[in-house]
Every structure is written in structure tokens, then in C-alpha cells.
């Protein structure tokens, strides 16, 4: 979880991008505070934002002495951030980028899904659902990953390319991955008969959804890997991403 840099609200440090995020989070929870109005998300602290933080603490968190402040990693922040569905286009680029920082292998399943291209995401959800229905425990290991992480994998010979479908981005560097790595959380990449069964089921579910599976590759079997497009499209996706990033 990527949080705020410092405190927001009454006697908080109130850095603009932190306030921006908290205002957005409060608006997402507005229905839990009957009679309260949504805040203008401008990143500027004021009596309305402080009042709403206080309300949230007393109504939702049932705090006896609400202090009107959200601390990084504190109870109020954790509660506000719960189930938060990010809509990147609504956030300022700065806040968005902070959200997408860090080790993407450690993101929640939800966040990994968010890092996928929207059309691809729908298909991946169908794949995950199909596998669950068959009794597997599918886990997304990687959705999107940064070019820096990609280079590390390349150097460790765990990937054959310096730019992969996992690295695709939208304008401003927002993740837009066209690839996903899915494992069964019980077996991961272990050398067991069950693991092989899972790979086979993954390959089938992927192809049922018109996706491409790394287990079909001849030179380098990438069992967990599923992608939206054939490898021949990698060049044009790379170009698109490069152009989007510089916009
Ligand atoms: Zn992959």
C-alpha cells in the first residue's frame, strides 16, 4: 500500500498531493456519512476537509475523540484506503505516479488487475474465474512491471526481451499491461504433477478467451505467462508506450 507522505487535516503537514488523495478517498466513502456533501478535490486543506475527516472518524470509525487528522499508516488512513478503486484519469499525474511506484510483484490482486489494459483485464478476469471454478487457486504474480524490473529479469535470463508486453504504459506512464503471469498459489513454479495440471488449465482458459499462452512457445516455455497479442505485435506496442510516456 502506497500511502501519504505525511499527515493531513488538523495540525497536519498537509502536502498538496496528500490532501488531494485524502479528499478523493473521503469522497469515495461519502455514502457512509449521511447528509455530508462531496469535497472539491483540489489538494488544498480547509475547514470542509477537516470537518469531513472528523465526521468520518466519529461516524465510521466510532472514535470517541476524533482528532480530524489522517496520519500516514494510521487507522484512519487504512480505513479510508480500504476497497479504494483508483480511477487514474481522475487523479493528478503526480498522485497517480506515486500510486504506481514500488515493487509491482507485491501489489494486491486488485491493484495488479488495475495495472492491466482494460480490454485485457476483462479477459484475464474470465481466465481467473474459469480456473477457480476448476478448483485451482490462481494468483496473479505480475501484471504490469516497470522497464527497470524487466531489465533485471532479462539480465537474470528470466525473460528474453528488454521490453515486454508487461511494460506497456499509457499517457503519463500509467500502467497498461498486455501481459499477466498467473500461478497457482499452492504450487507456484514448483516441479510437481499438480503444477503441470495447472499450467495446462491456464493455457486452455487463456486460449478459450482468445489470449496467447507462454507455454505454447517453442524456444522458451513461459508457463505462467498470458498475453493479449501475438509476439509480432510487440514492436508496435513498444512504440506506442514510448510515445505515450513522453506526452
Ligand atoms: Zn509474463
UniProtKB/TrEMBL annotation:
Gene Ontology MF terms in the entry: peptidase activity
Annotated protein name in UniProt: Peptidoglycan-binding protein
Native organism: endosymbiont of Galathealinum brachiosum
Domain of life: Bacteria
InterPro entries listed in its UniProt record: Peptidase_M15C (IPR039561), Zn_M74/Hedgehog-like (IPR009045)
Domain annotation Peptidase M15C: ranges: 179-228
Pfam families: Peptidase_M15_4
Amino acid at each position: 500500500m502506497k500511502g501519504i507522505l505525511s499527515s493531513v487535516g488538523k495540525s497536519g503537514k498537509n502536502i498538496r498531493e496528500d490532501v488531494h488523495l485524502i479528499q478523493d478517498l473521503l469522497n469515495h466513502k461519502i455514502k457512509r456519512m449521511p447528509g455530508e456533501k462531496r469535497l472539491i478535490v483540489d489538494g488544498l486543506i480547509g475547514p470542509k476537509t477537516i470537518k469531513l475527516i472528523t465526521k468520518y472518524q466519529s461516524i465510521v470509525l466510532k472514535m470517541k475523540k476524533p482528532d480530524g487528522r489522517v496520519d500516514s499508516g494510521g487507522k484512519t488512513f487504512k480505513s479510508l484506503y480500504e476497497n479504494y478503486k483508483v480511477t487514474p484519469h481522475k487523479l493528478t499525474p503526480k498522485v497517480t505516479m506515486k500510486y504506481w511506484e514500488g515493487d509491482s510483484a507485491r501489489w494486491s490482486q486488485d491493484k495488479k488487475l488495475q495495472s492491466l489494459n482494460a480490454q485485457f483485464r476483462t479477459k484475464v478476469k474470465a481466465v481467473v474465474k474459469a480456473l477457480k471454478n476448476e478448483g485451482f487457486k490462481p494468483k496473479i504474480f505480475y501484471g504490469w512491471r516497470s522497464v527497470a524490473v524487466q531489465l533485471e529479469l532479462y539480465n537474470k535470463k528470466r525473460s528474453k526481451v528488454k521490453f515486454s508486453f508487461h511494460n506497456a504504459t499509457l499517457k503519463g506512464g500509467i500502467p497498461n499491461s498486455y501481459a499477466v503471469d498467473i500461478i497457482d498459489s499452492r504450487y507456484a513454479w514448483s516441479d510437481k504433477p499438480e503444477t503441470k495440471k495447472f499450467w495446462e488449465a491456464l493455457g486452455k482458459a487463456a486460449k478459450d478467451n482468445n489470449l496467447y499462452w507462454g507455454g505454447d512457445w517453442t524456444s522458451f516455455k513461459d508457463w505462467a505467462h498470458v498475453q493479449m497479442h501475438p509476439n509480432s505485435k510487440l514492436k508496435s506496442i513498444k512504440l506506442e508506450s514510448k510515445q505515450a510516456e513522453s506526452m
